[in-house]
Amino acid sequence: MLLIILYLAFVAVFGATSVLIGFAVESMWGTGVSLIVFLLFNAFALWISWVLAVKLSALKLPKAP
After folding, report:
1. Exposed, middle or buried by CB within 10 Å (0-12, 13-18, 19+), for 53?
2. Is the predicted pLDDT of residue 2 greater than 80, yes or no?
């Protein structure tokens, strides 16, 4: 359960960041570039969220005797 909660929290934070970066790129270079940047950052956000959630949830689990 902790893994899912951590993953969703990281996805929300990194997803909002990718939206903000996409808006910033759109104002500078246009919608075509913005879409590519947003999709790349969003894919990266999903991957890094999973890696961080797994590592943090593994730290919280007690060691087997």
Report:
1. buried
2. yes
